[in-house]
Amino acid sequence: MFALSSGIPPAAIGVVRVSGPMAGPALAALAGRLPPARRASLALLKDAAGAPLDRALLLWFPGPATATGEDLAELHLHGGRAVVAAVEAALGIMDGLRRAEPGEFTRRAFESGQIDLAEAEGLADLLAAETESQRVQALSHASGHVSRAVAGWQDRLLGLMAGAEAELNFADEDDVEVGESVAQRMISGMGELAGELDEWLARPAAEVIAEGLSVVIAGPPNAGKSTLINALVRRELAIVSPIEGTTRDVIETQLALDGIAMRFSDTAGIRGEGADVIESIGIDRAKAAIEAADILLWLGRPKEAPDHPRAILIAAQADRWKGDAAAEAEAARCDLILSATTGEGMDKLHRMIVEMARTLLPREGEAALRQRQRSALSEAKQWLEVDIRSREASDLILLAERLRLAATALDRITGRAGVEEMLDALFGRFCIGK
Predict the structure, then answer these.
(1) Residue 239: its pLDDT value, please?
(2) What is the CATH number of the domain that holds 25?
(3) Helices and strands in the chain, H and E counts
(4) Last residue of a domain, one of 65, 100, 135
(5) What pLDDT score was predicted for residue 429?
(6) For 148-258, where are the E strands, in sequence order?
């Protein structure tokens, strides 16, 4: 298979990759020779009729020590559209060659054991990363952070399973430990491992980083919510009007603050009376958005703020009420005095949001788990949790089966078991040539 693996032309360089048993013959056919392995070589490429295509840099990587585990060739071309199209056309008419499907290079790397499933998912996230936090997390996965942790857990499971097998099959040997102490040691080891898995499950989900933290702006009508979101995104996203009920739906936009992806939402003003049918629907949606929010920016009276674990109480529209003693007393109970119109308090709000957001992200050196990985890890943890008062606690056969099922669940994280159904969906997310 072959594909353009660099950006869409025109570009300075266009990299065409060829993988599989025909990679060597294809390279020799275009360049008239097979260059030395793993050494850059300059050559004039020609089509089947001998017409010149481009003067390009060639790289030849014999398998299996390659990115795909197969023979692999790279053609570093001048990145014009016509040049790339001509080379691809020349490859396309060669026997045994075809264009690659989306994600096929990465899938072959997975199937040949060059990377595991967790690393492949990390690579997909790395390609889609738009913010610094997304890049750091994706690179951690792609570099094998999760895979190494899973390998360590599996080694410990194997040690426990070996103890159970020794007791079950060789209990009559003099040098094999027997009796209740074996089961107790297994349960202790399973409990320690379950605790470690629980710590990983307590970390933020990777989807929070990939999709962005939800920051919802809410409050009563005419509290300055639309003005605030316009000031945050620095454009007229929401209609600003003195008429109550102007915003009737949730208006959402993506925004990155200090490298952290966030989804800011402007919501309908919340009030108990006077709303028509359509505005009432908007209020219901606003309340649902508040419940699902990671961070809430409340622009109403502090005593009316929803019960939310991460709420910032904002005394908004400061340019209108300063000098009003009652309003200033009310504002003193808020976390922040702000005017989106004059800019007062905007920098402080930025800092407060970022500081709160960082508490929802993994700490430095930690890796977050995807929902699929969390599900498998949670299942493994459940198999490792044994009630010491139950009959299972003294039955080595049942304990050994629990260990086996826990190991099978962990295998799904790295792609060693039970993942065939979702491989097409995963690798279909990649671009062609990756």
Answers:
(1) 47
(2) 3.30.1360.120
(3) 16, 11
(4) 100
(5) 65
(6) 213-218, 251-257
At 169 the pLDDT is 67
- What residues contact 280, with CB distance under 8 A and at least 6 apart? none
Structural domain harbouring 223: 209-358
Domain count, the chain: 3
Q: 370 vs 9, 146, 226, 335, 426, CA distance in Å?
A: 34, 11, 33, 34, 13
Given a contact cutoff of 8 angstroms between Cβ atoms, the answer to whether 338 and 344 are in contact is yes
The 10 Å CB-count burial string (b at 16+, else e) for 143-164 is: ebbbbebbeebbeebeebbebb
Q: Diameter of the chain by CA atoms?
A: 90
Exposure b/e, 183-209, CB count within 10 A at least 16 = b: beebbebbeebbebbeebeebbbbebb
Residue 337 to residues 31, 305, 331, 334, 374, Cα–Cα distance (Å): 69, 16, 7, 7, 40
Q: Which of 40, 38, 35 is nearest to 24 (CA)?
A: 35
Which pLDDT belongs to residue 214? 93
Q: Are residues 230 and 290 in the same domain?
A: yes
Collapsed DSSP state (helix, strand, coil) of residue 191 = helix
The answer on 269 and 342 residing in a single domain is yes
Distance CA 243, CA 33 (A): 76
What is the mean pLDDT for each group of 10 consecutive residues in the chain (434 residues)?
A: 93 96 96 95 95 97 94 96 96 95 91 88 82 82 88 90 74 51 87 94 82 91 88 68 56 88 89 72 89 94 93 92 86 92 92 92 79 94 91 86 93 74 63 73
Q: Which residue(s) pair with 16 in the sheet?
A: 4, 75
Yes or no: say if 114 and 69 are a contact pair by the CB < 8 Å rule: yes
Give 298's strand partners: 218, 313
Q: Does some domain include residue 249?
A: yes
* The dihedral sign for the CA sequence 22, 26, 29, 34: negative
Note the pLDDT of residue 293. 93
- Give the pLDDT of residue 164: 78
pTM value surpassing 0.70: no
Asked if the structure places residue 363 within a domain, the reply is no
Residues 392 and 408 in one domain: yes
Q: Give the SS3 label for residue 220.
A: coil
CATH of the domain at 393: 1.20.120.430
Q: Are 299 and 316 in contact (CB under 8 A)?
A: yes
Q: How many CA atoms within 13 Å lie on the side-chain side of 9?
A: 17
Structure confidence at residue 160 (pLDDT): 87
Please indicate, yes or no, whether residues 168 and 220 belong to a single structural domain of this protein: no
